[in-house]
Amino acid sequence: MAKTKVSIDREECISCESCWTICPDFFEQNTVDNWSEVVEKHRTGGNPAEGEAPGELLDKVQEAADACPVQIIHVG
């Protein structure tokens, strides 16, 4: 199944917890800066701000992006 590109403007994250609460299989809170990041398993090139969402997580990833109050998660 195809994967969908996801990116996070991490510097603009307000650590509201929405994304990692809605989709903890894809998003997590960085323990150093507290900003959202892509879990290591789904990162692209080791970059915590970029990843590829597998089809089975795409609905939840999109839900998390839609719930982000500062709209910093980009899907597609």
- Which class of secondary structure composition applies to the elements? alpha+beta
Radius of gyration: 11 Å
Q: Give the CATH architecture.
A: 2-Layer Sandwich
Arithmetic mean pLDDT: 97
Percent helix, as a range, is 10-25%
Number of helices: 2
Helices and strands, in N-to-C order? EHEEEEHE
CATH topology: Alpha-Beta Plaits
Order of strands side by side in the largest beta sheet?
4-5-1-6
Q: What is the number of independent domains?
A: 1
Describe the protein in words.
This protein is an alpha+beta fold and 76 residues long. The chain has one domain (3-75): Alpha-Beta Plaits (2-Layer Sandwich), CATH 3.30.70. Helix content is 20%, strand content 33%. The protein has 2 helices and 6 strands, in the order E-H-E-E-E-E-H-E. It has helices at 18-22, 58-67; strands at 3-8, 27-29, 36-38, 43-44, 47-54, 73-75. It has a 4-stranded antiparallel sheet with strand order 4-5-1-6, covered by helices on one side. A two-stranded antiparallel ribbon has the order 2-3. The model has no long low-confidence stretch (mean pLDDT 97).
